[in-house]
Amino acid sequence: AYQRSEVDFTASGTNTQKSDHIGISFALNENLTLSAGRQNVDMGAGKTDEESTGVAASYTMGSLTLAGHANKTDDVAGTAGSEDSVKEISVAFAF
Fold this sequence. Notes:
It contains no helices and six strands. By secondary structure, the protein is an all-beta fold. The two termini are 33 Å apart.
């Protein structure tokens, strides 16, 4: 998938933000799915572009799902050197 977005703020002195998103998801079989994505946000003049990447996987067998993801953002909100990341593993049961 590919998406291009633009946010045009009405407040004076606020930069218009443009972003490109790309992602892929692939079901390896009926139980296992893998996905990856990337987002680049042009924060406007005088700011560093924000870049986010992520990967995810899920495995489902009957009523049990095991899933995990890892996401990272560099230059958060256009601030050079600012980073944020998250990793998570979950187990879910359906009854």
